[in-house]
Amino acid sequence: MTNYEFRYASHPEDAKKYGTEELREHFLIENLFQDDAINLTYSMYDRYIVGGAKPVGKDLPLETIPYLKSDNFLDRRELGIVNVGGKGSVSVDGTVYELDKKEALYVGKGTKEVTFLAGGTQPLFYINSAPAHQSFPTTKVGKDKAEVLELGETKYANKRILNKLIVNSIVETCQLQMGITELVEGNVWNTMPAHTHERRMEAYFYFDLEEGQTVCHFMGQPQHTRHIFMKGNQAVLSPEWSIHSGSGTSNYSFVWGMAGENLDYGDMDVCPPDQLK
Ligand SMILES: O=C(O)C(=O)C[C@H](O)C(=O)CO
Ligand SMILES: [Zn+2]
């Protein structure tokens, strides 16, 4: 079963007026993982699709959805998959790729068949997809291939390990970039100092958050911020004009994914913490 929903893009002046319910309705994606279903959200932020696939008792083929008006999901798109659950497998045009937790698979434009296979130790496949103009080879990015950076300091409660997975130094893509950031125990702030990048939108997916804990995700223009309280296994859309940062009541991990004008991971306009409002 494939479920899908649609999100329009918001003007920053409009978003300033949103209350709690509107913010959650427009930016928060609450139900990504449903047994034996693929749940997709098609957004108008760079036509980025955010989704989840949870095969429990049957294999789940990635079917096209009406918003695409294409015969196959990847006729004009590329796809990034990050497994955030137990070990699992994905079939891509007949080749099976095994993904451990926190491993990624890039699937290029023109691929006809992508099937999330039941079995393993209950995988949870987090999906991001963006329009593509060129076909690049399907490539698994295992733990051995990830580029790992240590960021932040415990003194500032933001010590974290950033794992670049689907980035242009590892795999060729048209516009997709994805990776995982893991907060070190005792640290709670991600992406602080915060930044914007008007060249790209971004989506965050929070996971490995202890039951009963929460992450307060911050968004908005740097001098007009808003917050959304999030649970584990939920995603949030970050417009190109918005910061994306969060503080948890414990440590946690998140998958970041981006698309837009460039593939330059370092293209960020940093906002000093004491300038945020
Ligand atoms: O912890 C961080 O800092 C991040 O993970 C930042 C994201 O990768 C990002 O926002 C990239 O633009
Ligand atoms: Zn960013």
Write the layout of secondary structure elements.
Blueprint: E1 2-7, H1 12-15, H2 20-27, E2 28-29, E3 37-43, E4 49-54, E5 60-61, E6 77-83, E7 88-92, E8 95-99, E9 104-107, E10 114-117, E11 125-131, E12 139-141, E13 147-151, E14 160-166, E15 177-183, E16 189-190, E17 194-196, E18 200-207, E19 215-221, E20 224-230, E21 234-238, E22 245-248, E23 253-260, E24 269-271
Parallel strand pairs: 1-3
Antiparallel strand pairs: 2-21, 3-4, 4-11, 5-10, 6-9, 6-11, 7-8, 7-10, 9-12, 13-14, 14-15, 15-23, 16-22, 17-24, 18-21, 18-23, 19-20, 19-22
The structure holds the ligand O=C(O)C(=O)C[C@H](O)C(=O)CO and zinc ion.
In this structure, how is the largest beta sheet organized?
A: 7 strands, mixed
Can you tell me the residue ranges where pLDDT is under 50 for at least 5 consecutive residues? none
CA radius of gyration: 18 Å
Intertermini distance: 43 Å
SS field, number of helical segments: 2
Overall form: globular
CATH superfamily: Jelly Rolls
Using DSSP, what is the number of strands?
24
Strand order of the largest sheet: 1-3-4-11-6-9-12
Hetero ligands? ligand LADIRMRS, zinc ion
What is the fold named in CATH at topology level?
A: Jelly Rolls
CATH top-level class: Mainly Beta
Mean pLDDT: 98
Estimate what percentage of residues fall within beta strands. 35-45%
Structural class: mainly beta
When the domains are counted, the total is 1
Pfam families: KduI
Pathway: Glycan metabolism; pectin degradation; 2-dehydro-3-deoxy-D-gluconate from pectin: step 4/5
Binding site for Zn(2+): 195, 197, 202, 244
GO molecular function, one term: 4-deoxy-L-threo-5-hexosulose-uronate ketol-isomerase activity
